[in-house]
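Fig. S4 source data, part A: sequence.
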Amino acid sequence: LSGAVVLYNIERVLHHANSVISVMKLMDFLTVCLVACGIMASLQLITSTIIHADSSGCHSGEVALLPNLVLLPRSSSHDCEHNNCTRRPHPRRNQYHQTNNNATIDNTIASNPKPSSHRSLMIIAIYPNSPRKIAALWSQLECFSQSFDDVVISSPVHLHNETTNFLRLVETKLPEVWKKLKVKFYINDRHDMGLWCDALDDEAFSRDVPHENDTTDNPPTDSNNIPYDEIMLINDSIIAMENTDVFLTTLRTNRLSLLSLNYRNETNRKYWLESPLRVFDRKGIRLFSRNICRMRSIRWRRDCPHVGKIYRPSERDKRCVVEKTEIDLVDYFEEGEVMGLFSATNEKGEAWIDTIEYWEYLRGVGFPVGKVSRARMFQRIKASRREDLLRCTAGLRTEWLD
C-alpha cells in the first residue's frame, strides 16, 4: 500500500512538472512519505516494547514474536532458533512479560474467566518409581491443579505402596488439594493411555443423568453423560515450573476442543499434538474416548507393521501406541478445533526434551515445565536452572534432587 502511494504521487508530480501546482504536489508527496515513515517507526517501537527479546542472543530492538498457538492444519510457525529472532507472527499468540530474567505467562492477557456452572477435571497418569517422578506429581498438584474442581491420580496397582506413601504427604502439606483428590489403581497394559482411559471411564462416563451443560446434538452413547466441561490429561514425565491456569483459559478463550502443550509437524506434515499434557472440552473428550479409549490393545505387528522397518524391537510397540493415540488423534477433529502452545522442536529438529539450549529458549518465553523422565536432560536442567525445579516443589525436601 505504501509503495502504491509513492508511485501514485511520483506520477502526479511528473505530470504537472511544468506548472506551479507541481510544487504543491511535490510537497504533498513529501508529506505522505514523512507520515508513512512516522507510522512505521511508531509501529516498530510499539511492537518492540510489547514483546522483548530474551537473553539468548536477541537484542531488545528486534521484533521477537512467539512460536506458539498454531492451529490445525497449519504448518509450523516456529522460525526462530535460540539464537535467531526471526519469527512469523500468529494472531492468537499469548503475550509474555519478563520477571527476574525469566519470562512467565501472563494469564490476564488471554484469560477467559471460568463460568460458575463449569466443572473441570484433572487426571494425572503416574508411575511413581523414582524420586523425580514423585517430585513431578507434587509440582503438578501444587502449581497446575488450583483451577480444577476435581483431581484424579491414576496409578498402576503394583505401585500401590509408593502411591499411598505419597498421599500421606499430600494430606498433610496440601490440604486444599487433598479435599478434591481421588486415587484410582488399575492393572495397566496400555501405558499412560490406559491409565487415562480407565480413569475417564470411572469418573467421566459412568453417570446415568446427562450433564446440564450438554446441549450438543450427538447420538446417545455412554459418553454423552459427561459431568465435566474441561478435562486435562497429564502424566508425570514433566515437572511444573510455574503456577498457571493458562491451559484452561486458552482452551476457553479460543473455543477449542483440544489444546496441547507441544505440537510437531514432522510426520508427513500431519499436525501432531504430543500427549504429556492435553486439555479437552466436552466434545473433545467424547472424541478421545470414542476413538482412542475404545481401541483394543495395540500391537505393532497388527496395527503398525511399517514400524518394523524403522524402529528397534524394543521401541516398536511404543511407537505404534504413539501413532494411534497421539499422531492420529487430530484426524477426528475439524480444522480450527485444536491448538498446540509450543513447538516441540526447533528448526534443526532438536527437541526440547533432549536439548538444553532449546529448552532454555522456551523457558525464556514462558514454557512452564521441564522434563524429568530423561535422566541426562534432568541433570542438565538441575545444573543450569535449579531454582526452576524448586519453584513448585516447596512442600518436598530437596533430597529428590540428589
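Fig. S4 source data, part B ends here. The longest strand covers residues 258-267.
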